[in-house]
Amino acid sequence: MDHAAFTIRTWQETDLPHLLSYLQHLDAATRSRFAPHPFTAAALHELYHHPDYTGFLVIEPKSTFIIGYALIKKGYLEHDYARLAAYGIVPNSKTDATYAPSLAKEWQGQGLGALLWEKIRKTLQTRGIRRVILWGGVQAGNEQAIRYYQKLGFREWGRFQMNGMENLDMTVTLATGGRNK
């Protein structure tokens, strides 16, 4: 697969209707695992205009369809603070970011998630971000995602229950020289 043919870029306001369509067409299993925000036009519009959020898109070269997406929040989720602190992590609103990626099922396992992460990692490093926290963790039963995060250098800190499901808290430290620690 020619990864160079895929476009990975930050979102633009004109992308929001296409992103909403992408989110609404995710298969049920993916939707159940990726829900950092409601799948509504109003929610996307609010996130787009909030200064702490940045969206990244993976665009298929032949059709220009959005096939992947990641939401980055500068800082951390306030409701996660106590849980992260219990692991010995001191969340920092200036040097932490929270990460929620999604890739359409038919495109998974082809290296596009790693390509998306590489673009995001470089962008975050230029913004002074030193640690990335998984948004809501990753469901313990989602072995494919856990392997993906581990390949990227994410480390498990602990487990917690959310909506009756076990989740793993994972973070990665971004090295100042370019590689993950």
State the CATH architecture: 3-Layer(aba) Sandwich
What is the H/E order?
EHHHEEHEHEEHEE
**What is the rounded distance between the termini?**
28 Å
The computed structural class is alpha+beta
CATH class descriptor: Alpha Beta
CATH homologous superfamily classification? Gcn5-related N-acetyltransferase (GNAT)
Low-pLDDT residue spans: none
Mean pLDDT score: 90
Overall 3D geometry?
globular
Overview of this protein structure:
The protein is an alpha+beta fold. The chain has a single domain (3-173), classed as 3-Layer(aba) Sandwich (Aminopeptidase). The chain is 30% helix and 28% strand. The chain has six helices and eight strands, in the order E-H-H-H-E-E-H-E-H-E-E-H-E-E. It has helices at residues 16-24, 28-33, 41-49, 81-86, 112-126, 143-152; strands at 7-10, 53-59, 66-74, 96-103, 131-134, 138-139, 155-162, 165-173. Strands 1, 2, 3, 4, 5, 6, 7 and 8 form an eight-stranded mixed β-sheet that branches. Strand 2 (53-59) and strand 3 (66-74) form a beta hairpin. Helix 1 crosses helix 3 (41-49). The radius of gyration is 16 Å and the shape is globular. The mean pLDDT is 90.
